[in-house]
Task: inverse folding
């Protein structure tokens, strides 16, 4: 059987990572979390004391950033310069930095080749902002996963509270709206519904319902 590539795009907080991970596990595909790879780059920049608007500094800093994905006991680990950074890449600070620096073509180019090589050699599910339109334009299945701003803000709020962070839901909602605008208006690989993609609005769907829908679509390829 030839390799099957599934591209899942969508705005921040739509549940792409959670759903892609579960679907990949059920299908026995490799899950490639491109967002986590970008978050690792953002973490590297923050650790180097850089601000998001310091393009020159960021372009120089990422030269010393080596990001890879490894699976240990069925767990995905994001490796930044030989360090497992899973515990550090999901903070709001890293989220904001990630959205800001992902507009730089040098950042995107650094990770693009690695992502494509993984997809060439494996059956994968890959999620992000421009997978179907840019990273895997020939994917056998393209999905645009979205949800209302209110739904996404509440999901992110609950996630942060469970992790022990003090957050304000209105601040999260404003941040999501700002990130939606930046992601869809950036010059390089903007967030969009890829040609041939199926739109799934998860606002009123459970995680299991979305996963089952994707698996059924894969079976129909």
Result:
């Amino acid at each position: 059987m030839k390799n099957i590539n599934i591209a899942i795009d969508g705005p921040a907080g739509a549940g792409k990572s959670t759903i892609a991970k579960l679907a990949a596990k059920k299908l026995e595909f490799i899950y490639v979390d491109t967002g986590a790879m970008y978050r690792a780059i953002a973490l590297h920049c923050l650790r180097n004391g850089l601000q998001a608007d310091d393009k020159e500094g960021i372009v120089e800093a990422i030269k010393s950033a080596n990001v890879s994905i490894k699976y240990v006991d069925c767990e995905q680990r994001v490796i930044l310069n030989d360090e497992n950074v899973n515990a550090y890449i999901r903070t709001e600070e890293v989220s904001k930095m990630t959205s800001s620096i992902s507009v730089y073509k040098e950042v995107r180019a650094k990770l693009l080749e690695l992502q494509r090589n993984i997809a060439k050699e494996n059956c994968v599910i890959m999620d992000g902002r421009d997978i179907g339109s840019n990273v895997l334009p020939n994917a056998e299945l393209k999905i645009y996963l979205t949800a209302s701003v209110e739904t996404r803000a509440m999901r992110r709020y609950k996630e942060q509270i469970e992790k022990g962070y003090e957050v304000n839901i209105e601040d999260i909602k404003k941040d999501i709206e700002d990130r939606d605008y930046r992601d869809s208006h950036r010059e390089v690989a903007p967030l969009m519904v890829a040609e041939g993609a199926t739109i799934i609005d998860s606002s009123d769907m459970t995680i299991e319902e979305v996963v089952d829908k994707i698996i059924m679509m894969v079976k129909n390829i």
